[in-house]
């Protein structure tokens, strides 16, 4: 069967991109679904984030590498005036936290002096590296009005050679995120990191990672182009989809096999998907709470550095 040429429009510059159609299922193997998980029961992180941990390196570090953890917070309705909720100052070392807001607002401040507030569609990419203290709170203005809150937080591992990199912080606003139009009116994909169908996202990463905010319309069917040898996972934020032959609903995490070049996705309803796709970091993973390193000795050092104030200090300029 001949390959069809698909056209995608890069809305950032109206450039039309031609590419070979995603591999036909009869030509190459699709990635198999390893599992679908919901991370129930949930738990609270601080008093602001009612989360379900849908994937974690505590269970299968190799299968999800370079990712370490995904928390799906909400959806939950908060009353007006519930200000100041969230997680107060706490440390991290050895990886990056990526926070994506779907509803509500998140306010971040860290010991490197970085701060920012993001709303729906926006992203905070915090590189802990050798160490930060930070706090993550509901955005104040949003909390005064109250309403729906829904956020994902992804932990992205750092390779051993960058685990002690200087801390870094990227606020990625809606205007920063380019959008690819999917063929056949299937919807659109906002590219947060990496490259998808020729559209490159703004996030700086240490290893190859693609993160996509995909919005499908009901009835859409497409093959997500994915690399063989790379980890791929899809979090269903809203709606119901079929991946391969498996049905996944809002709140489900679909973990795919490293092998295979793509995933057949169809949408039973309008759907919002968060697609994580990255080159595995095949190194030992040893974690303890907010620290993720390669060895037990490095974890002991992190705990000791935190205990003695060498990891980082809360800035004087914030209360
Ligand atoms: Mn944190």
How does this model look, in words?
This protein is mainly β. The chain has helices at residues 61-64, 140-145, 296-307, and strands spanning 5-10, 15-20, 33-37, 43-45, 49-56, 67-78, 86-92, 95-103, 106-110, 115-118, 123-127, 132-138, 147-157, 168-172, 179-181, 187-193, 195-196, 199-200, 209-216, 221-224, 231-238, 240-243, 246-249, 253-256, 263-267, 271-278, 286-288, 291-293. It has a 7-stranded antiparallel sheet, with no helix packed on it. Strands 4-5-6-13-8-11-14 form a 7-stranded antiparallel sheet. β17 (195-196) and β18 form a beta hairpin. It starts with a strand and ends in a 12-residue tail after the last helix. It binds manganese (II) ion. Manganese (II) ion binds next to β7 and β12. Residues 90, 92, 97, 134, 136 line the site of manganese (II) ion (MN).
Alpha-carbon distance between the termini? Answer: 64 Å
Number of helices: 3
Q: List ligands, each type once.
A: manganese (II) ion
Main sheet?
A: 7 strands, antiparallel
Percentage of residues in DSSP E strands: over 45%
Low-confidence stretches: 1-21
Brief account:
Helices cover 7% and strands 50% of the residues. It is mainly β.
Keywords:
319 residues; mainly beta; 3 helices; 7% helix; binds manganese (II) ion
Topology:
Elements: E1 5-10, E2 15-20, E3 33-37, E4 43-45, E5 49-56, H1 61-64, E6 67-78, E7 86-92, E8 95-103, E9 106-110, E10 115-118, E11 123-127, E12 132-138, H2 140-145, E13 147-157, E14 168-172, E15 179-181, E16 187-193, E17 195-196, E18 199-200, E19 209-216, E20 221-224, E21 231-238, E22 240-243, E23 246-249, E24 253-256, E25 263-267, E26 271-278, E27 286-288, E28 291-293, H3 296-307
Antiparallel strand pairs: 1-2, 3-24, 4-5, 5-6, 6-13, 7-12, 8-11, 8-13, 9-10, 9-12, 11-14, 15-16, 16-19, 17-18, 19-26, 20-25, 21-24, 21-26, 22-23, 22-25, 27-28
């Amino acid at each position: 069967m001949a390959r069809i040429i698909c056209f995608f429009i890069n809305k950032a510059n109206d450039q039309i991109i031609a590419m070979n159609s995603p591999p036909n299922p009869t030509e190459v193997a699709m990635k198999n679904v390893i599992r679908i998980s919901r991370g129930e029961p949930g738990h609270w992180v601080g008093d602001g984030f009612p989360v379900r941990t849908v994937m974690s390196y505590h269970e299968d570090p190799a299968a999800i590498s370079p990712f370490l953890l995904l928390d799906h917070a909400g959806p939950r309705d908060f009353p007006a005036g519930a200000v100041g909720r969230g997680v107060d100052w706490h440390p991290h070392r050895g990886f990056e936290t990526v926070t994506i807001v779907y509803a509500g607002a998140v306010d971040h401040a860290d010991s490197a002096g970085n701060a920012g507030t993001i709303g729906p569609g926006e992203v905070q990419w915090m590189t802990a590296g050798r160490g930060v203290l930070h706090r993550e709170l509901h955005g104040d203005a949003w909390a005064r009005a109250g309403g729906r809150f829904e956020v994902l937080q992804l932990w992205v591992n750092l390779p051993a050679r960058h685990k002690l990199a200087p801390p870094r912080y990227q606020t990625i606003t809606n205007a920063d995120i380019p959008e690819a139009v999917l063929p056949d009116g299937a919807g659109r994909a906002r590219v947060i990191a990496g490259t998808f169908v020729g559209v490159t996202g703004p996030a700086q990463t240490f290893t190859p990672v693609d993160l996509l905010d995909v919005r499908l319309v009901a009835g859409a069917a497409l093959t997500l182009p994915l690399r063989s040898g790379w980890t791929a996972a899809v979090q269903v934020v809203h709606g119901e989809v079929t991946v391969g032959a498996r049905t996944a609903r809002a709140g489900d995490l679909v973990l795919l096999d490293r092998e295979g070049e793509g995933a057949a996705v169809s949408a039973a309803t309008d759907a919002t998907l968060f697609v994580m796709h990255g080159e595995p970091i095949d190194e030992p993973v040893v974690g303890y709470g907010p620290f993720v390193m390669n060895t037990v000795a490095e974890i002991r050092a992190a705990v000791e550095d935190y205990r003695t104030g060498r990891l980082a200090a809360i800035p004087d300029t914030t209360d």
